[in-house]
Amino acid sequence: MSIDRRSIFFDLTRAEVLARGCVQPDAGRCVQCGICSHNCPLGLDVRAYAWRGIPITDSQCLTCGQCVARCPRGALEFVPLRPET
Ligand code: SF4
Ligand code: SF4
Question: Ligand 1 centroid to 80 CA: how many Å?
Fold first, then answer.
């Protein structure tokens, strides 16, 4: 099933995003510029997650979308953690 991840982020409430999704980096697109980490309001080291290509599952993540929106390489996106019911 094709999923429009951008619409998932903008259409769901924050609580729904927190329950269903997280930020997933694409390590192959990341150039380690650090813009994501610089713009994270909580100071999460998004770049380190991107380096390893692992989802940001830190419980402090607000799913605010700043890192996703600011990444110049489109290396970050929201993905669902489990299928919608
Ligand atoms: S802003 Fe994008 S390209 Fe830059 S370090 Fe973060 S994920 Fe990588
Ligand atoms: S979604 Fe917001 S709080 Fe979570 S890592 Fe990105 S900038 Fe930080």
Answer: 20
What separation, in Å, do the N-terminal and C-terminal C-alpha atoms of the chain show?
13
Half-sphere exposure in the Cβ direction for 36 (13 Å, CA): 31
Rounded to an integer, what is the distance from CA 45 to the centroid of its chain? Answer: 12
In-domain check, residue 85: no
- pLDDT at residue number 7: 47
Task: Dump pLDDT digits (tens) for 28-55.
Answer: 999 999 999 999 999 999 999 999 999 9
Q: Does the residue 26 lie in any domain?
A: yes
Atom 8 of ligand 2 has which residue's CA nearest to it? 40
Residue 21: the pLDDT is 84
* pLDDT above 70 for 23: yes
The enclosing domain of 42 has a CATH number of 3.30.70.20
To test the pocket of ligand 1, the residue of 30, 44, 78 to mutate (highest count of ligand atoms within 8 Å of its CB) is 30
Q: Which domain holds residue 73?
A: 5-80
